[in-house]
Amino acid sequence: MDEVRKLGLAVEERWRAKNFDELLFPDIARTALEEFALTASIQYIDILKWLNTTQELPKQQNIEATFGQPPVTLFASQRFYVEALFWLDGTTAIHSHAFAGAFQVLHGSSIHHEWGFEPRERINARMFIGDVYPKGAALLRKGDVHTIMPGSRFIHSVFHLDHPSVTLVVRTYPLEEAKPQLTYQCPHLAIDRLDIEEATRRRLQGLRTLWEMRHPAYDIHLAELVERSDLFTTLWILEQDLATRGDIGKCVPLFMAAREKHGRPVDFLIPLAEVRMRQEQIMRKRALVTDAEQRFFLAVLLNAPNKASALDLLRMKYPDKDPVDVIVDFVRGFATSGPGGGALLDVPGDEASLTVLRLQLQGKSPAETAKGVEAGHPAGPLTAGKVASLCDELRASLLKPLFIDAGPDLR
Ligand SMILES: [Fe+2]
Question: Could you give the C-alpha distances from 296 to 215, 247, 286, 336, in angstroms and in order?
Answer without folding.
Answer: 41, 26, 9, 17
